[in-house]
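Quarterly update from the structural biology core.
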Amino acid sequence: MEKNAFGHEPVRVVAAIVKDGDRYLCMQRCRSHESYNSERWEFPGGKVETGECDYATLIREIKEEMDWDIFVGRPIGTVEHQYPDFRIALTGYLCRKGDGDFKLLEHLDAKWLTRAEMEKLNWTDADRKLLQLI
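Predicted structure, tokenized:
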């Protein structure tokens, strides 16, 4: 991966693109000091820790953020985006939901939307790029 202007490699992040029928799970981030991501929509997931594989990261992050189990499938692609203070390399994985319902432990809202309906949301910049690969 190419180093960014700060001389660091991009932060590796994985996202669960959870599909159920013709609808996808969209999560709204909480308010934060980062105005460029505050209350925007994203696919759930998180940062890949040192020594951790993408699949393990997704399972761990979804359990931590939503107290939910998913089945991780194939990758749909990786996008890069330069935010004001870091660069992200975001890889999306097509996933299936497990049994039961998830909880909003770290998000404001969640919606199950069709691909067309998803276009109307105010996505984070990196997730908007990922959305284009679906």
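The first strand starts at residue 11 and ends at 20.
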